[in-house]
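Workshop exercise sheet. Pairs work together: one partner reads the sequence aloud, the other fills in the structure field after running the prediction. Swap roles for the next sheet.
Pair: D.N. / O.F.
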Amino acid sequence: MAARKNAKGKAQKSNELDTAEFFTAIHMIEEEKGIPSSYMIDKIGQALVTAYKRDHEGAGDNITVEANEELGTVRMFIKKDVVEVVDDPSTEMSLEEARAALPRAQLGDVLRIEIKPRNFGRIAAQTARQVIIQGMREAERGMIYDEFNSKEHEILTGLVTRIDPRSGAASLRIGSGNESTEAYLAASEQVKGEEIAEGMRLRVYVVEVRRSTKGPQVLVSRTHPGLVKRLFEMEVPEIYDGTVEIRSIAREAGSRTKLAVWSGDPEVDAIGACVGPRGQRVGNIVEELGGEKVDIVKYSDDTAEYIAAALSPATVISVTTLDDGKSCRVVVPDDQLSLAIGKEGQNARLAAKLTGCKIDIKPESAPVEEEPEAPAAETEEVSEVPAAEAECAPAEEAEETAAEEAPAAADSDAQ
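Structure field:
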């Protein structure tokens, strides 16, 4: 009989909240997961109050739970006002009831009385388990969000885990261990013609980090101009330490990028620093971008000089700035017209984006008063500076192959 009672007592005790184990578990979670113990204890207290309110109709915000680690206790209290006539038993008590608990009680006092609801220990144990599991998930998601939110506009390396066969969007696993999450690379953010396969590693630019019910959502890109900027910062020490500045970027992903650089140190060649010895630095970036051409030009506060450099590799005879200050007329040699415009207008379009000016390109042989004006570039916003999109007058009988065969690489600019 005694053995049966002991067994029953042990079974009942196993369902009760063992405060020593409770606090030990909280600290183990803090050490392993990095979740503060105060956060977990607060969440458990809130859950216990909610459970009590659910089982006791009329209970309000006067219920509190206190967990004392030093004493190893978890206790629940209710606050009540001492009044002459009790209208609401859940928040008020008579003077006689108050003095039974505290002989010195007076009318108008607020007493905090410990309550021990039925099966409180069992409820507390179950609630603690549920809250710990839920709290760990929430805290881990919050930590992952904070981790990747601080990496917005940075380059990360991800492992392609899945490619949607319908949309072409790719999912990448970025980070490591407990601080890893899924990143979303939309089809519109992928470089046209670039092949992406499951299992391959890919460098991506973090555009935005969002909160969601399933955890943080990381949006990444391979086409963003910021990817080129970060690659140059990683490859060129002079850019990383601020000696050389990237003033503007214009990019058509997978085809060509123009980059305007500047240095306040007259002894530093900004273009040469970006190109590197034997073109090694820019070559590494071109390889990372899958062969995308990169033109590096020198930035200038002189608009005419800046536009002439932006139209590189074409030679410019003159640049005339128009009255609005954001439009210009450029004259180039006849044999350089197709080169200045570029294949399908790409060179002129990128130059307009880079400088933020509307560019009207004319051949040297065409008098201004007789030559119909070419549609000027329309400004659009790109990569940290105002940008523009150019539609230039087509050259008469210009050979498109001239633009393709012309040296447009950055190292030619450096020379």
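Discussion prompt: Residues 120-149 form the longest helix (30 residues). What would you look at next?
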